[in-house]
Each structure stands twice: as C-alpha cells, then as structure tokens.
Design goal:
The protein is an alpha/beta fold. It is built from 10 helices and 12 strands.
C-alpha cells in the first residue's frame, strides 16, 4: 500500500470547485481517511525567517492500521493572489514498504518529485518506488554543522522508542541534516525511523521520535517550554551510536508497550494495588533476555485470558443461565397448576 498527495495554493484544485489551498496531486483510489490525514498535515505553516522547508518520516494509525508518512513542505514562490505560497508533498505507506526502502531515499524521492512538478493537477497511479535504491544507502553529506559522530548518534535516537528534540543554528539546511541522519539507519531498522525537521499543531497524533528545529524559531520556543520530550545537548560529547539488531529493537518496543498497559486496580477496601506488570519490570535487570521474553509472553497471555475468557467458558455460563431459567419457569408452572387444582370443586 502506497499513496501520494500534493497540496498547495491554486486557482483550481483537483476537486471540482476547490480553490486556494487544495489538493493538486493524488493517487487514484486513496481512502478518504488517508486523504483527510495528509490534507490536515499540509496546513502547517513553517516558521522562521526566511521560510524553511520541513521534512520527515513519522508514524501514526488510521482506520485501525499503522502507517508511515513521509513529508516535504517547502516554500513555493507566490500564489495566484500574490501571497507567499508553499508546496506540501506526502507519501503514506505500510510497514512492508517501510522495510523495503531506505528512508533517506524515500525523502529524496519526495524532494525530486516536488522539484520536478509541472504545476498541473493530476490523479496518479501508485508511485513507482521501485526506482528507489533498495540496497545500501550512500552516506549523505550535510552542511558542516554537525560532526559525523553526532549524525550517527541522532540516527540512533531516530529509531529509539523515546522522544527527543535538538536545536540547530539559524540558516542550517534542516532537510540536508534529516537526509544525513536517515542515511545512517541500518536496513533492519528502516521501518523504525521517525524524524521531522519541525513541529505543527495539525497532526499531533503522529509519532515523532526526533525533532530538529531552528534555534530562533517559534518551534524551538514551544519545545523549550514543553515537557515529556528530552533535549539533545550538542555541546556535550556525542554518545556512541550503538545500532541494535532488529530482534533487540523489537524487544524494546514490546517492553514499551507493556509499560503502557500497566493498570491500577481498586481493591475491595478501596486501596490501590500494583498489577503483575510492575513486578515483571522490577525483576528484568537480573534475568536473561530469553527468560524475560518468555515471561512477557506468558504475562500477556494470562492477562488476555483473564480479560477475555475462552469461548467454552462463556458458552458454559450461558447454558447454566438458560437451565436456571427453565427450572424457575417449571416451578412457577407447577405452583399455578397446584393452585388451580386446589380451587376446583
């Protein structure tokens, strides 16, 4: 599954009667829920002077399914009314596609697609990403702002299940930095990459593990005043980038998922007790990873069995209820019959 959508200010959009900021390019057969998501993301206004291009790869769920969205939002001259214009170009695709193509090549495909657009409305067939290199991604040379050790470290942050952000000097070509960071992502972790050069208020449901912003932008001010996302301090020595194999990365994601599933239950006395999930994570440090994985699976299965009883158990309960109802009706019938016979002469 893969779809593309382009959005800009135009005197006539792709849909009849649409004008102003509207969709101008869209893959045929795109589901409405994906169209609405991508059009909502296109409403972003880049801040900073001069206007900066915003690009990245982020994760979300739509209609119950996980998808990856690659985006490029860039200044696009002036529109038909003389206002400063911008062009947004997006790709939405499933995990199988994310595993197949290097993320840096996907973003570069967007850059080339936007630069080569002829300005005409179009309904397209599914994008031919087979043109993208599926082998090793050559190193991408960024602006001389970050040393390679920091590029490697930020690449590791982009695949970790933890949200971070970093401020970069004014004038930094953030698109080039994003491409450089994505080029360090190993093949087995392609589908994990999540990075964006900017933030917006129209797509907060999208997961972004690493955000790059201009130090003089409003985005930098909002992130500095916010909570829940750690700042990467570039004045420190860059941490050694340890690229974890896919099985270990999947284990980290599973641990994060289990932590999110912790619940607090009320006891009969009203006090709060911890669930077995908490005990599991307290014991993890002293147990081998295979034993931890086995216990995690067992815990998930036990929880699922407790919250969702087997079909046989539910069927047995229904049968007992039906039997009780039949016995009650029979007793009532017998009582009525006895009463009538007693009243008869």
């Amino acid at each position: 599954m893969i779809f593309e959508l382009a959005h800009t200010s135009t005197p006539q959009g792709l849909e009849p009667g649409s004008t102003g900021y509207a969709t101008v390019v869209r893959t045929s057969g795109m589901p409405n829920h994906i169209r609405r998501l991508l059009e909502g993301m296109s409403a972003y206004r880049a801040d900073g002077t001069p206007p900066m291009a915003v690009c990245g790869i982020r994760k979300t769920r739509t209609a119950g399914h996980p998808i990856t969205v690659a985006s490029l939002i860039t200044p696009y001259g002036t529109d038909h009314s003389g206002r400063a214009n911008r062009l947004a170009w997006h790709l939405a695709y499933d995990e199988a596609t994310a595993r197949q193509h290097p993320p840096s090549s996907v973003v570069q495909w967007l850059v080339d697609r936007a630069e080569g657009w002829n300005g005409k409305n179009a309904t397209t067939s599914a994008p031919e990403l087979e043109q993208i290199n599926t082998g090793e991604t050559p190193p991408h040379q960024p602006d001389p702002v970050l040393e390679q050790a920091w590029i490697d470290a930020l690449g590791n942050h982009a695949i970790e299940p933890h949200e971070r952000w970093v401020g970069l000097p004014p004038g930094t070509n953030l698109v080039e930095i994003v491409l450089a960071i994505l080029s360090t992502i190993p093949e087995e972790c392609r589908h994990e990459a999540s990075i964006c050069s900017g933030i917006d208020g129209t797509a907060r449901e999208l997961e972004t593990r690493l955000i790059l912003v201009n130090e003089e932008s409003k985005a930098h001010q909002r992130l500095s005043a916010g909570v829940g996302r750690d700042k990467v301090d570039l004045s420190e020595t860059p941490p050694k980038a340890v690229t974890r194999p896919a099985p270990e990365l999947e284990s980290v994601r599973k641990d994060e998922s289990l932590r999110n599933k912790r619940t607090v239950r009320e006891t009969e006395t009203g006090s709060r007790t911890r669930t077995r999930h908490d005990h599991l994570f307290e014991e993890k440090a002293s147990k081998p990873s295979q034993e931890q994985d086995a216990e995690d699976h067992a815990l998930i299965n036990q929880t699922s069995a407790h919250e969702h009883p087997p079909e046989e158990q539910r069927s047995s309960t229904r049968n007992l209820l039906i039997l009780a109802a039949v016995v009650a009706l029979a007793a009532i019938g017998l009582f009525l019959l006895t009463t009538l016979m007693g009243d008869s002469p």
